[in-house]
Specification:
Radius of gyration: 18 Å
Number of domains: 2
Number of helices: 12
CATH topology of the largest domain: N-(1-d-carboxylethyl)-l-norvaline Dehydrogenase, domain 2
CATH architecture of the largest domain: Orthogonal Bundle
Strand content: 5-15%
Structural class: alpha/beta
Oligomer: single chain
Shape: globular
Largest sheet: 4 strands, mixed
CATH superfamily of the largest domain: N-(1-d-carboxylethyl)-l-norvaline Dehydrogenase, domain 2
Helix content: 40-55%
Number of strands: 8
CATH class of the largest domain: Mainly Alpha
Strand order of the largest sheet: 3-4-7-8
Order of helices and strands: EHEHEHEEEEHEHHHHHHHH
Amino acid sequence: MRTLIAGIGALGGTIATRAVSAGVPVWLATKAHDALKSAPFLSSLLSPGGTLLCIQNGGVSQILSARLGGSVVLGGVSNLGATMVEPGIYEQRNAGHLLIGELASGLSDRAANVARTLSPAIETRVTANMRGAVWAKLLLNCSVTTLGAIAARTMREYIASSTGKEVFRRTYGEALSVALASGTRPERMIVEPIPGEDYGAWIEQVIAGYGDAKPSMLQDFEKGRRTEIDFINGYVAQVGEEIGVPVPMNAAVTELVHRIEQGQLQPAPSRLDELSLRLSS
């Protein structure tokens, strides 16, 4: 099996580096800024029976599966803590692993073969509930990552305020409602994705697992790069509108991130206050 890695940012570069070190034959393509535009070209490079494994954040894998077909696209989720220090230099900050599976659910020889091929480079596991795993990470991307980027704070820092707690609760709650209404049961990753009766204890678990990481979207802001917001909170807002689930907070968050991208605003803790006031008026 031959492997082409398109998108050698923090995650792609880390996997590529480990693969080369492990003797896995890989080819690199330049960084893919727009997965939806590049995917049809990448699929044309596949050998008969070849697979496009999408590990990008948000709803990208589900969008591509709908466009290119489930027989081409295989879903993937990463919990690797990786950073691109500079072009060609990558730092992996946790043990981490890749989770691979069919977006239509169930186990397959294809997923097992891809996992086995990549396993010399990175720990790889197969799940029968790939869609649930995608949504589980999407829930955290919408709240932990995006809100931290907007506030220019880690989750532990921004959720210390009453406003931070409320904006997190509404953002996460909307996204979870969309997932459940679409027929998906989010799969447990580090933390159970559906809060139990003791919400405070659940929040503490989320903080323990993710609360001290610098949001990757904040790094995009700092470097003037486009973010993945349209595939994260924007995707939740889109699906919510399509299936009739109210998503005002995720829609407002998406709009705010676009304004920061365009240089109209700067990330700051006060942005969360603005979101709260806007949706309470």
